[in-house]
Structure formats: structure tokens, C-alpha cells
Amino acid sequence: MPKNAGDTRGQILKAAYALFRRKGFTRVSMDEIAASARITKKTLYYHFKSKDALFAAMFESHHELALQAFQTFGDRLKGSPAQIVDALFSDLADWTLKPKWAGSGFTRIAMELADLPGHPARAIAKRHKSILEESLADLLARAKVPAASERAREIWLLSEGAISLILISGDRQYAAAAADAAKRLIGAK
User: Most exposed residue of 19, 62, 89, 101, measured as fewest CB within 10 angstroms of its CB?
Assistant: First the structure.
């Protein structure tokens, strides 16, 4: 059992992330989270007033971790525009090989909460995707791709589509098809 409130909060966020990632928002109960975190429900509600508040805090925490990972990944995206696109979609294809891969958690959650437009997790997902798209636009601008922001939006759309179709079909070739389409968009094919 954690010795201080910060450790307890971290333990709760870790347990919640594992459950929400595996089962989704609606299929996880506060009882399950408390049991997984090995705390009482009273302690859980001391740290988070509701499931929505817990979910938003967990999603915000995951957003920060994902941005750090993308920055590291972005540091590896160098070279010509075609090399940037190839690396982006090659890494996407590799990501799909991870055990129990379930696509983008940010996209899945936004879709699961589609009927709750004011939910804080939807705002976090929107901000997360916007930051990633802007980061891609910066990479493309440095590679001298004309209209980099517009191309980044189109490439991001291809990426999200590839993720969804790979998840649905299990066919990783969607990553290669998206890379080819992206290279045509930037005039590299």
C-alpha cells in the first residue's frame, strides 16, 4: 500500500489505465478500480470525486506520456519528406504488432464517449490529436513540404484511417497503403 497521497493517486491512475485500456470507459466500475488498486472505495473517492474525474485525470496523465513518446519518435523522423512518411507508417505498422494492440486509446475513447461531447476526456483527446498533428506539420515544414499544415492534416487522416482499418481487419498492409497515399500527397511518389 502506498505511504502517501501522491503514491496512492499514482497507484489508482495506473490501475484505472490498465482497466480502461482493456475494457473501455463504460465497462469498468469504481469497485473494479478500487480492487485493482488494492484500496478501499472510500479511498478512491477521496482522491477522485467521480469516475469521470478519475478518467479525465488518467487520460491527462496518459496524454503527457504519449506526447513525450511522440517527441522521442519525432526526433527520429528526419531526412526527406518521403523518409519521414516511411518512418511514420513503418512505426505505425510495428506498433500494431504489440501484444493485445487495440489501436489508439485516444480515438477509441472519443468514439466511446461520442454522445457526451462535454466530457473532459473528449477535450483531452482533441487536444492530444491536435498537438500530434501540429508536430507532424512542423516536421514537414522543416523538410520543406509545401503547405505543411494541410499535408499534415491529410497524412494524419491517413494514419487514423490505417489504425482503424488495421484494428478492424487485422491487415497491416493498410499502413503501407497509407504511406503510399501520403507520399503522393507530398509529391514524393
Answer: 101
What domain range is 158 assigned to? 51-185
Query: pLDDT digits over 144-162, tens only?
Result: 999 999 999 999 999 999 9
CA distance 18 to 169: 24
Q: What's the rounded Cα separation, in Å, for the pair 179 and 162? A: 9
Question: Across residues 51-61, what is the average pLDDT?
Answer: 86
Both 40 and 111 in one domain: the answer is: no
Same domain, 55 and 45: no
Cβ-contact 104, 160 below 8 angstroms = yes
Say how many domains are in the chain. Answer: 2
Burial class from Cβ neighbours inside 10 Å (0-12, 13-18, 19+) for residue 123 reads middle
